[in-house]
Design goal:
heterodimer, A: alpha/beta, Rossmann fold, 2 domains, eight-stranded mixed β-sheet, five-stranded mixed β-sheet, about 40% helix, B: about 280 residues, alpha/beta, 10 helices, 8 strands
């Protein structure tokens, strides 16, 4: 029986409430514009549900404490923005090699450096994928609305628990600070990490992966398993190893555990793509502007369409290839509030099958629909 | 039980050099854990990166070998997410006082119930002998070949000033005394710092005319003296003893008492009066 009710929420607030709905019991973070409301809301609401909040001494500590909390069995989250995202990079890699479920929210603002703290941008898309050193899996969700801030945060927890890794929620200041009426569902399916079936004993191997999922079940600290966690390359028993064979198997497995299922993870929204000749690929707040662009271009008789990836990484190959094979695409446009980031991934996948144009905006102001439309008209009318 | 019963014997021998006193200190920590009577399966040993930070790998507990400098920040998350766990951190002088210095002063300030043992060998051993914030002025290191001009932290004063509620210093030479201090630190309901001065004949000793491990042990003995009541001045560089042992509000207990208990209770009584934002979380 549905009892849906619209709730007015801010994007950051929706993120915090979505996290609590997902079962988060521990949040650690450091204040940074434009993500601070996430910490504030967590400090207010977590204790109501028996969870704990801590404001750490710096961004690195915010990430470290979240990972430490996750090892006790808690579902954890931390949130930040560009400068903090840069600071957290080393420990993002720690979470990935030690396979610790953790949700990391990054509300993108203008950079580099302190940049324009209160202005939106989309400059961290490649940092999300390549920011930490070494090879690693990346799962990165990207909400375009307040409702999606709520729902994709829940999804991020589910994916973090399923894959035992750091899952990112990446969006921009516009989505984070916008207020919208949100119609929530009664029920959101939740995923909980797989724990070892066998009781503690000398044969326990904390990193022995399930052959099908490639994910090892995870024991909570304090349950008697007495296992070792390290950021060093390690064997199935969790202890460091210098063996080239073991190191290669570890890195390949942590990448493969996500790659293997990437096709089923894709999350895209399509607008007028059935017959489109000019495809826009846009994410976060830019996607909202692009919706207007498509409507306006259609009124002018230009067959424009829009693909909105809600999961930026892994890259939505299947959806893009399907559009490329089914449609007679004449051009692809990637408007981004940066000097060109996601467009590189698009070009790599398109591989010359159709021209790919980048439309940049680094003014710190939200993309106008006409900025995108004018560029498309310019190309379309050639 | 013997010390060996607390070690992962299949992980031995350890990686430490001959003459290193990390083993003596690890063994003092293990005996202190046993004497303190804490539940072994509810105890997490955390470390950062460095020679001393390899100790937890040999200890048969839940163990967490984190990133360089971040042991206390990870440990704070462990303790805060589950305050029932006993958390003991083993860190080095570079790990705790340089790259992790910020986490050190804030763990002291919070007075969160954890025990930090800083194994101070006065040098970066794992990277082959660069000076640390605890290298004595004038000593030699691979990055101080003309003699160290940096001034060293006094870890006891730093911890004291930052608010730790148990602070002590001993050395590997004085292992039984060190063991008593670690045990007292574990029993303290708050943040405890125990500085354990150690020896690194390979990278500190060799450059400072103490390549012989016995000479380094003699250096520990000759350069330290016990704290005395009423003593105004000391002649030796390292003063050993308990410097702080007091009771103050512990962080996780304060959070649970002042926030968790009150907010949960209020929320259970009046779940509806929290405003519309609450609906999303129900």
């Amino acid at each position: 029986m549905s009892k849906q009710q619209a709730v007015l929420m801010q994007g950051n607030e929706a993120c915090a409430l979505g996290a609590i709905r997902a079962g988060m019991t521990f949040y650690s973070g450091y204040p940074i514009t434009p993500s601070s409301e996430i910490a504030e809301e967590c400090s207010i609401h977590l204790p109501k549900h028996g969870g704990r909040f801590i404001q750490m001494e710096d961004e690195i500590a915010g990430m470290a404490a979240a990972l430490g909390g996750a090892l006790t069995g808690a579902k954890v989250m931390t949130a930040t923005s560009g400068p903090g995202f840069s600071l957290k990079q080393e420990l993002i890699g720690y979470g990935m090699i030690a396979e610790i479920p953790c949700v990391l929210v990054n509300i993108m603002r203008m950079g580099p450096s302190t940049g324009l703290p209160t202005s939106p941008a989309q400059g961290d898309v490649m940092q999300a994928k390549w920011g930490t050193h070494g090879d690693h899996p990346v799962i990165c969700l990207c909400p375009t609305s307040v409702k999606e801030m709520y729902e994709l945060t829940i999804e991020a927890f589910n994916l973090a628990e399923r894959f035992r890794t750091v899952v990112m929620v990446l969006t921009d200041e516009v989505i984070a600070h916008m207020r919208e009426g949100v119609l929530l569902k009664d029920d959101y399916p939740l995923v909980h990490r797989k724990r070892p079936v066998d009781p503690p004993g000398p044969d326990f191997l904390p990193y022995k992966a399930d052959p099908e999922t490639l994910v090892p079940p995870m024991a909570d600290y304090g349950q008697g398993y007495r296992y070792h966690t390290t950021g060093l390359a390690h064997t199935e028993n969790g202890f460091p190893s210098n063996s080239p064979r073991i190191n290669e198997a570890l890195i390949k497995r942590i990448c493969e555990k996500v790659d293997k299922f990437a096709h089923e993870l894709e999350m895209n929204e399509f607008v007028d793509t059935d017959d489109c000749e000019h495809l826009i690929i846009a994410y976060a707040a830019t996607a909202r502007a692009a919706k207007f662009t498509v409507r306006e271009l259609r009124e002018k008789g230009v067959k424009a369409g829009l693909m909105i990836p809600k999961m930026l990484w892994p890259f939505p190959k299947n959806a893009l290839n399907e559009l490329l094979s089914k449609n007679n695409l004449k051009s692809i446009f990637v408007p981004e509030m940066n000097m060109g980031q996601y467009v590189h991934a698009v070009r790599e996948e398109v591989a010359g099958r159709c021209p790919v144009y980048h439309i940049d905006d680094v003014s710190g102001e939200l993309f106008g629909p006409h900025t995108i439309g004018n560029k498309i008209m310019e190309v379309a009318s050639k | 039980m013997t010390t060996l019963d607390y070690l992962r014997q299949d992980k031995l021998p350890h990686i430490w050099c001959a003459g290193c006193t990390n083993g003596a200190i690890t063994s003092a920590v293990i005996r202190a854990i046993e004497n303190s009577g804490i539940d072994r399966d509810k105890t997490v040993i955390v470390s950062g990166i460095g020679c001393s930070s390899r100790a937890p790998g040999y200890m048969d507990f839940d163990t967490l070998h984190t990133a360089h400098g971040r042991a206390l920040a990870f440990a704070t998350g462990v303790k805060m997410a589950n305050p029932e766990l006993n958390v003991i951190i083993i860190s080095g002088d570079g790990d705790a006082a340089a790259i992790g210095g910020n986490h050190l002063i804030h763990a002291c300030r919070r007075n969160i119930d954890m025990t930090l043992i800083v194994i101070n060998n006065c040098i970066y051993g794992m990277t082959a002998g660069q000076y640390s914030p605890l290298t004595p002025t004038g000593a030699f290191a691979t990055t101080a070949t003309y003699g160290n001009v940096d001034r060293a932290f006094d870890l006891v004063e730093l911890s004291k000033g930052s608010g730790a509620t148990y602070v002590a210093r001993s050395t590997a030479y004085h292992a039984p005394q060190l063991q008593r201090y670690v045990e007292a630190g574990i029993k303290n309901k708050g943040f405890s710092v125990v500085e354990a001065i150690s020896t690194c004949p390979t990278y500190f000793g060799r450059r400072n005319a103490m390549a012989d491990p016995v000479k380094m042990m003699e250096w520990l003995k000759d350069n330290s003296e016990n704290k005395r009541d009423g003593a105004a001045e000391y002649t030796k560089p390292y003063v050993l003893g308990e410097f702080v042992n007091k009771t103050e509000a512990e962080y996780t207990a304060a959070y649970d008492r002042e926030i968790l208990a009150k907010v949960m209770l209020k929320h259970a009584r009046h779940p509806g009066d929290q405003g519309q934002e609450e609906r999303g979380a129900e």
